[in-house]
């Protein structure tokens, strides 16, 4: 996979995808696999923003069963199976434990019924899955077994628990990259650090998009018959550049700042779900009683999720600090046995997520539950559509719908979507990576479009894992990447300073 913006500016593409997070990556892969001529551009690095900072849990839909929403439950179960099938090396089964007894948590009998129904309603959940990726049936646990699995629980209030299986992404940034690499493997032209910053609109349609190489400053005109914007919280502003009249400024915020904490302890091999304080004024919407999760990693645990509405003028760093303090306090109230302190926190992962904001039923300040899709038509060009994901888990299914619409707009016959069965390049099961760190760094630079030192360290290797890379590792990586890319000493010094100073976010 080589970066070539000159090639992007060549012949006309069937579809140009703007945005290389998980949603844009899925659209590019699906479109390319269906035989369309595809271009994908990302202003920073693939999966480098919210997509990289997921809680990493692929939920199978039991939450929707509790609401009686069987359609969304089946969708989540289907998409969990699809990710386990196409990326078995990056997605694996994850036990999830919810203790019973605390206020607001269903009892063991209610959970028993829910787990039985979940099992009966998902008979195909293990279809074509590697045996090591099978999702086992859930069950209720006794008090003693629950305490054995998670000793930090309050022994007086715990009455038992429910255990079921979902899945976890070992590395969401690598999974996003696998979708991009797979698209490139079947002919898509892709480029990171390539910003779409202008639209040529004539006759009510986008004829070309100006894409600026952020590394060289050179601009290229990319022509496409259809344009899909999948740029997350930047989508609306970007689409406004292509509209005949400016996009109106919404009366209320449309995105929340969301964060997870990375702590240097590991309590269990299961993800643990805990009810937050039902009277918590710190919860968005003021309702409290949300489920918080401890998601185990190899040597650490992710605590999530806090989110809050920020307004223009709010200090970004101050909001993150406030959110981190709030989330830590919520976990300590939900489970005092954790005994968490600021010293346990290795770092913060954050991103921006869409709110309901009056666009779907429910309080405006609650996270959106359905993907946002706009166009084509309306006030914008006839061949421009916008799509914004709300769940990493269902991005593949959303992309399928988007590409169906693209085919229809191009007046092409329907072509079946194969992304739920086709293995992703670089996401297969392996017996372990026996290559040296130096070999993986060189491969990332030469074959995976790691064009900056941050790309390689934070999103293509494990060197950037919290608490962060040490200077010796950064210098070694810089020598390898710099030699491969012909960097002079000034560029090398700048790359090292950027990595050591900025971090992955």
Task: Walk me through what this model shows.
The structure is a single chain. This protein has helices at 5-8, 22-33, 62-67, 70-86, 108-120, 143-149, 172-185, 235-240, 316-334, 395-409, 437-447, 453-459, 471-485, 489-502; strands spanning 13-18, 38-41, 57-58, 91-100, 139-141, 160-169, 189-191, 194-202, 205-213, 219-229, 255-263, 271-275, 291-296, 301-309, 345-354, 372-374, 384-388. With 505 residues, it is α/β, with parallel strands linked by helices. It folds into 4 domains: 5-51 and 173-251 and 368-409, FAD/NAD(P)-binding domain (3-Layer(bba) Sandwich); 87-168, D-Amino Acid Oxidase, subunit A, domain 2 (D-Amino Acid Oxidase, Chain A, domain 2), CATH 3.30.9.10; 255-351, D-Amino Acid Oxidase, subunit A, domain 2 (D-Amino Acid Oxidase, Chain A, domain 2, 2-Layer Sandwich), CATH 3.30.9.10; 437-502, no CATH class. The strands form 2 sheets. Strands 3, 4, 5, 6, 11, 12, 13, 14 and 15 form a 9-stranded mixed β-sheet that branches. Strands 1, 2, 7, 8, 9, 10, 16 and 17 form an 8-stranded mixed β-sheet that branches. The radius of gyration is 23 Å and the shape is globular. The mean pLDDT is 91.
Brief write-up:
By secondary structure, the protein is of the alpha/beta class. The protein is 32% helix and 23% strand. It contains 14 helices and 17 strands.
């Amino acid at each position: 996979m080589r970066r070539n913006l000159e090639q992007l500016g060549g012949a006309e593409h069937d579809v140009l995808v703007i945005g290389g997070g998980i949603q844009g990556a899925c659209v590019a892969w699906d479109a390319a696999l269906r035989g369309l001529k595809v271009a994908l551009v990302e202003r920073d690095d693939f999966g480098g923003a919210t997509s990289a900072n997921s809680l990493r849990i692929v939920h199978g839909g039991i939450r929707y069963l509790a609401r009686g929403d069987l359609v969304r439950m089946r969708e989540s179960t289907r998409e969990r199976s699809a990710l386990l099938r196409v990326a078995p090396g990056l997605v694996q089964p994850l036990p999830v434990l919810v203790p019973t007894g605390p206020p607001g948590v269903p009892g063991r009998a209610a959970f028993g019924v829910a787990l039985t129904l979940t099992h009966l309603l998902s008979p195909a959940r293990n279809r074509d899955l590697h045996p090591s990726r099978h999702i086992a049936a859930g069950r209720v646990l006794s008090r003693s077994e629950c305490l054995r699995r998670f000793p930090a629980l309050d022994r007086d209030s715990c009455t038992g628990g429910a255990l079921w299986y979902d899945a976890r992404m070992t590395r969401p940034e690598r999974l996003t990259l696998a979708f991009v690499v797979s698209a490139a493997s079947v002919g898509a032209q892709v480029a990171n650090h390539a910003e779409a910053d202008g639209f040529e609109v004539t006759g009510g349609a986008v004829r070309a998009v100006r894409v600026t190489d952020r590394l060289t400053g050179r601009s290229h005109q990319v022509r496409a018959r259809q344009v899909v914007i999948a740029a997350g919280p930047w989508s609306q502003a970007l689409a406004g550049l292509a509209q005949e009249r400016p996009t109106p400024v919404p009366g209320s915020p449309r995105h929340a700042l969301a964060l997870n904490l990375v702590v240097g302890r590991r309590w269990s091999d299961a993800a643990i779900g805990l009810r937050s304080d039902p009277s918590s004024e710190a919860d968005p919407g003021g309702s409290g009683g949300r489920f918080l999760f401890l998601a185990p990693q190899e040597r650490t645990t992710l605590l999530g999720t806090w989110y809050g509405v920020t307004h223009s003028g709010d200090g970004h760093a101050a909001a993150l600090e406030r959110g981190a303090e709030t989330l830590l306090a919520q976990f300590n109230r939900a489970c005092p046995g954790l005994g968490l302190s600021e010293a346990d926190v290795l770092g913060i992962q954050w991103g921006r997520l869409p709110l309901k904001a009056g666009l779907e039923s429910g309080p405006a300040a609650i996270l959106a539950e359905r993907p946002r899709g706009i166009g084509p038509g309306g006030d914008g060009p006839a061949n421009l559509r916008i799509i914004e994901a709300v769940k990493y888990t269902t991005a593949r299914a959303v992309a399928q719908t988007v590409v169906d619409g693209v085919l229809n707009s191009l007046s092409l016959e329907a072509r079946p979507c194969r992304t739920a069965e086709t293995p992703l390049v670089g996401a297969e099961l392996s017996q372990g990576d026996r290559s040296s760190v130096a070999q993986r760094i060189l491969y990332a630079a030469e074959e995976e479009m790691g064009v900056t030192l941050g790309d390689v360290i934070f999103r293509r290797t494990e060197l950037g894992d919290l608490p962060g890379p040490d200077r010796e590792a950064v210098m070694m990586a810089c020598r390898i990447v710099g030699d491969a890319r012909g960097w002079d000493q000034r560029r090398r010094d700048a790359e090292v300073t950027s990595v050591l100073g900025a971090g992955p976010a």
